Amino acid sequence: MVYSFIPGLSAAPDGRQTAFLQVISPEWSRFFRYPAESFRVERHPLRVRVGDSVFGEAGAAVSIFQDGMRISGEIAYSAFQPILKSLYCPTVMGPFSYLWFLECSHDVVSMSHSLKGELNVNGETLDLTGGTGYLERDAGKSFPRAWVWYQSNCFSRPGDGVMLAAARVPIGPWAFNGLLGVCRAGGREYRLATYFGGGLERVQRKGNIVCISARQGERRLEIRVRAGASRELKAPLLGDMSRAIREYPCCDSAVRLTEGKKVLLEDRGACAGLEQVGGLDEF
Q1: Fewer Cβ atoms within 10 Å of its own Cβ: the N or the C terminal residue of the chain?
Q2: How far, in Å, CA of 28 to CA of 249, rounded?
Q3: Distance of alpha carbon 89 from its chain centroid, rounded?
Q4: How many Cβ atoms sit within 10 Å of the Cβ of residue 281?
């Protein structure tokens, strides 16, 4: 069982602002609109409010009664597991996070945290206690033309988790393949990223099987995903949430992370999320 909540605020080229809350599950996806003034952000501590729903570091209080949907509940979070940061890597984007003119910026807030609470969706109560959460954030005017994204923290060893994102990143008239990868294995963090000399080796799809591999020196990450049912996800285009893409919110996957001949992680990642947008030949 997977539920994703995406609160945000969009600003169209004509200046029109709209608050929104996207909710994605394996069975359905909905995009709820709200007045812009109902959107509030506090950064320290992190707290985002959209309509009557609040998302923060301590947990989430969801209250959606719109378009025939009734979603409510309270979920408490344990302490976040943030990624390692430094002056060189203030976010997962490393030094690229200082380039304010990029069309999109990305960061990982928590690789893993435990959940306690429940959701009620149209009269059905869902117990989330004992589950695992993941939190990331995006900002900018447009998502890339082509990208692939993978995430799972449902491995056999508690605390293990993998996130990988690769995209065609435009800078003026040029573009390059950008890679962001964070792996937590056995209590340690392993990073694969363009700014550390890493790169995407392969993105290949045959039917519903997607294979992704990336390398950084002797470190190699291989991901094999069996894509399940896809759901529509709204993405920004010049500030407006008008681009429709497809996300696979609950997939089976297998991950292998090696450093030379040493195997750091080799496991099945359940409840994995996958996005593969644009032509595979663009990478």
Answers
A1: N
A2: 10
A3: 18
A4: 7
pLDDT of res. 44? 86
Which tens digit of pLDDT belongs to each residue from 135-168?
999 999 999 989 999 999 999 999 999 999 999 9
Residue (of 46, 15, 40, 256) closest to 136 by Cα position: 46
How far is it, in rounded angstroms, from Cα 134 to Cα 124? Answer: 23
List of residues 6+ apart from 101 with CB closer than 8 A: none
Q: Give phi and psi for 205, each to the nearest 5.
A: -130, 130
User: Under the phi-then-psi rule, with left for phi > 0, alpha for psi from -120 to 50, and beta for the rest, what region is 134?
Assistant: beta
Read off the tokens for 122.
């149209």
Residue 43: predicted pLDDT: 87
Residue type, 61: A
Is the model's pLDDT at 279 over the cut of 80?
A: no
Closest CA to 56 of 33, 37, 75, 30: 75
Residues 265 and 152: their CA atoms lie apart, in Å, by 13
Which runs of consecutive H residues, i.e. helices, occur in 57-116?
A: none
**Measured distance CA(81)–CA(184) in Å, rounded:** 10
pLDDT value of position 179:
96
DSSP state of 82: P
pLDDT at 203: 93
| 249 to 119, 252, 271: CA distances (angstroms) | 18, 10, 7
- The CA distance from 218 to 233, in Å, is 36
Domain ranges (residues) in the chain: 4-282
Tell me the pTM.
0.95
First to last CA, the chain: 32
Let me know: does 78 contact 91? Beta carbons within 8 Å.
no
Which residue in this structure is represented by tokens 């506090």? 42
